[in-house]
Each structure stands twice: as structure tokens, then as C-alpha cells.
């Protein structure tokens, strides 16, 4: 069985060497880039299972790399941010990162995040063989290609955004809590003051509204989110 490949984009060579040694021992294949330009060039390679992306780097910083990718990447991105810098975390999620982890971090915590992300990707792939598409309220998800359409227009969603939208559509007209989204999609419990789910929902709403005059999502304050149904609703296997 081939090893899963991880791309590390971080100018801290000592850290990348330590992570390469540690994650290699855990069974992963690592490749490191030490500036944003070379990292961006490698990020388009879909053979990587995950990208670890630092914020502060020469040539292009992490945010500029995300902007260049334009939210069109299929490979999940775990953003490495400065501890306590909530603005960096929010901006990273807005630009298409799937999750974030604050530096300094414990290697075991990083490994847990990586395994959680890869586990949910594997779950999605296994589900692709049972459900080919969903269509509710002029939103259509093609699971085999992981593409989303709103009023027949292609919507560029990140992998995490696609999975959150699929979960909401699976539970259309029902409240789905932040805890449910975090545990079922991010594969971790929602921690206090964690705004990652809010940002992912905000991104999904904004992208759908670009092709729709009406909002497809409803926020229930203190409870969660609802995907609103229309007349034409269906799910095909």
C-alpha cells in the first residue's frame, strides 16, 4: 500500500525537518517547500493527500498562496497560524483553508488533526459509491466528482465546504448544530471560541448567493443551521 503524501510549505527549515522525521515515522511521505512560490507550484499536484501551510513565508505568504489557489483546490489544507492570532485563522478559513492549528503545537496534536482530516476524506470517498448526487432547492452536489452547482452554475467549494453542504442537505429542513458539523465533518469536538464552522458556513452562503437571489441556508442563533428546501427535492443512488 502506497504511503499518503503530505506537502509542508513552511520557511522554518528546522521545524520542517522535525515534522518530516516525525510524520515519516508515522507512515507518511513528506515533501517540503520553504517559500510560497515553490509551495504554490507543488500545491497543484493532486497526488498530495494534505497540505500543511504556514502563514509567514518569503516570496508569497500563506494567504497569498490561498488566494492564488482561489478555493479551487481539492487537496485539504491545514493552516499553521500564530498562537492567539484569531484574525489569521479567520482569514485563512475565508480564503479556503480547511482547518487551522496554532503554533507552537504538540506533534501528537498535529498528527491527530492530520488523521482526522484524512479519515473524513476516506469516508467521503466510500460514500461516493452509494450516492451519486443530491439535488435540493436548485443546489446539486455531484459526489463522484465532488462538484457543486447552484441554479446549474458551477460553485467552487473546498473539500470541507462540500462536505458541510452535503451534511446540511442530508438533513434538509432540520437544524444541524455546530457540534454535529465539527464532529461529523472535521472529526473533532468543537472547542470554545472556535469560529471555523461559522467561517465555512459564511463561505458556503456567499458562494451560493453568487448564483441565487435567495439564501439557501438559515442560521438559528444558538442552535445551528438549516438547509432550506424547495419544490424539487431528490436524492439518487
Automatic annotation (TrEMBL):
Signal peptide: none annotated. One of its GO terms (biological process) is regulation of DNA-templated transcription. Transmembrane segments: none annotated. One of its GO terms (cellular component) is cytosol. Residues 128-229 bind DNA. It comes from the Bacteria. It is found in: Cytoplasm. The keyword Transcription regulation applies. Keywords: Cytoplasm, DNA-binding, Phosphoprotein, Transcription, Transcription regulation, Two-component regulatory system. It comes from Colwellia hornerae. Pfam families: Response_reg (PF00072), Trans_reg_C (PF00486). The modification 4-aspartylphosphate is found at residue 54. This is Response regulator. One of its GO terms (molecular function) is transcription cis-regulatory region binding. Its main location: cytoplasm. Residues 128-229 form the OmpR/PhoB-type domain. The keyword Cell wall biogenesis/degradation does not apply. Residues 5-118 form the Response regulatory domain.
Amino acid at each position: 500500500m502506497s504511503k499518503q503524501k503530505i506537502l509542508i510549505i513552511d520557511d522554518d527549515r528546522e521545524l520542517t525537518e522535525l515534522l518530516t522525521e516525525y510524520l515519516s515515522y508515522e507512515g507518511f511521505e513528506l515533501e517540503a517547500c520553504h517559500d510560497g512560490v515553490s509551495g504554490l507550484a507543488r500545491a497543484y499536484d493532486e497526488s498530495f493527500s494534505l497540505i500543511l501551510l504556514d502563514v509567514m513565508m518569503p516570496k508569497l505568504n500563506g494567504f497569498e498562496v490561498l488566494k492564488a489557489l482561489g478555493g479551487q483546490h481539492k487537496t485539504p489544507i491545514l493552516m499553521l497560524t500564530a498562537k492567539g492570532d484569531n484574525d489569521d485563522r479567520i482569514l485563512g478559513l475565508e480564503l479556503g483553508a480547511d482547518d487551522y492549528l496554532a503554533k507552537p503545537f504538540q506533534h501528537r496534536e498535529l498528527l491527530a488533526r492530520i488523521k482526522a482530516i484524512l479519515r473524513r476524506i476516506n469516508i467521503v470517498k466510500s460514500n461516493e459509491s452509494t450516492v451519486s448526487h443530491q439535488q435540493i432547492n436548485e443546489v446539486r452536489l455531484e459526489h463522484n466528482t465532488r462538484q457543486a452547482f447552484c441554479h446549474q452554475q458551477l460553485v467552487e467549494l473546498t473539500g470541507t465546504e462540500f462536505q458541510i453542504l452535503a451534511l446540511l442537505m442530508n438533513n434538509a429542513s432540520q437544524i444541524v448544530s455546530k457540534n454535529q458539523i465539527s464532529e461529523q465533518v472535521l472529526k473533532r469536538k468543537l472547542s470554545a471560541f472556535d469560529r471555523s464552522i461559522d467561517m465555512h458556513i459564511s463561505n458556503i452562503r456567499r458562494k451560493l448567493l453568487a448564483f441565487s437571489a435567495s439564501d439557501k441556508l438559515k442560521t438559528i442563533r444558538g442552535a445551528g443551521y438549516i438547509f432550506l428546501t424547495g419544490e424539487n427535492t431528490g436524492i439518487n443512488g
